[in-house]
């Protein structure tokens, strides 16, 4: 059975999730793909940091050692921030590696360039994990686009914000107390600015816009509002209405894009009404199918890692077809 050699860039929560899933599901992956996957090398920021045991795997803080691995095939990228992630992935594609990323901050900005580079090189990019964690929205939209046209996408795209709003409504917690609980449970970072300001949801919305419409709006035209201005009394006064932090993008008949990211009051007839906790939900409105709603876990080690491994399985399937026809 042929072997695919992989590198993992970044070994925090997501990187560890990838490693665990691949090792726990190795036999199932072999049966599904016809390939054995070997994690050959892991890039970390701090080589001295205590982490789980990875026997037989090179662990390094030097990207040159990663790219020096003989016969490397694919790179899983789980680094935080635009750089050095973009530089590393661009180099990986130039070397002929397939890449899979969970980095929405980087991909919202540099995704179009990476996709074009991969197309020119004949490589593949998986980016399901950049948007809505374990919800398979990227593959769903790709499938829809083969015979339909997307008009609008609405989404609860940030589980931290949804968790905070849920706690405020259900338990009467203040914004500050709900945020603290989200941090205690690991749903929110020590610096939660991107989550509560709407920037995280905005970046995911731009990834979906590029995928669904082939372009993004001018970023400055999108009104971005977070949940940090919502007070407990606002939530409690809404009674039968629920606050949801909704990212929204649509295209008109002339090809013009408009969108927003903001807290919205919705009623029981809205598909997002019952979406609580850290779950994400997305409505895709198309010309023929109508409105399709997907719901699932938005973040975490296993939902995100699973999305990346599923991307690998799809790419391996393409590789297998290429081997058969070559």
UniProtKB/TrEMBL annotation:
The keyword Ribosomal protein does not apply. SUPFAM superfamilies: Glyceraldehyde-3-phosphate dehydrogenase-like, C-terminal domain (SSF55347), NAD(P)-binding Rossmann-fold domains (SSF51735). GO terms for biological process: methionine biosynthetic process; threonine biosynthetic process. Pathway: Amino-acid biosynthesis; L-threonine biosynthesis; L-threonine from L-aspartate: step 3/5; Amino-acid biosynthesis; L-methionine biosynthesis via de novo pathway; L-homoserine from L-aspartate: step 3/3. Belongs to the homoserine dehydrogenase family. InterPro entries: Asp/hSer_DH_NAD-bd (IPR005106), HDH_cat (IPR001342), HDH_CS (IPR019811), HDH_short (IPR022697), NAD(P)-bd_dom_sf (IPR036291). L-homoserine binds at residue 189. The keyword Oxidoreductase applies. Residues 136-313 form the Homoserine dehydrogenase catalytic domain. It comes from the Bacteria. NADP(+) binds at residues 10-15. This is Homoserine dehydrogenase. The active site is at 204 (proton donor). NADPH binds at residue 104. It comes from Sporosarcina pasteurii. It is an enzyme of class 1 (oxidoreductase). NCBIfam families: PRK06349.1. Its EC number is 1.1.1.3. Residues 10-128 form the Aspartate/homoserine dehydrogenase NAD-binding domain. GO terms for molecular function: homoserine dehydrogenase activity; NADP binding. It holds the Pfam family NAD_binding_3. It catalyses: L-homoserine + NADP(+) = L-aspartate 4-semialdehyde + NADPH + H(+). Keywords: Amino-acid biosynthesis, Methionine biosynthesis, NADP, Oxidoreductase, Sodium, Threonine biosynthesis.
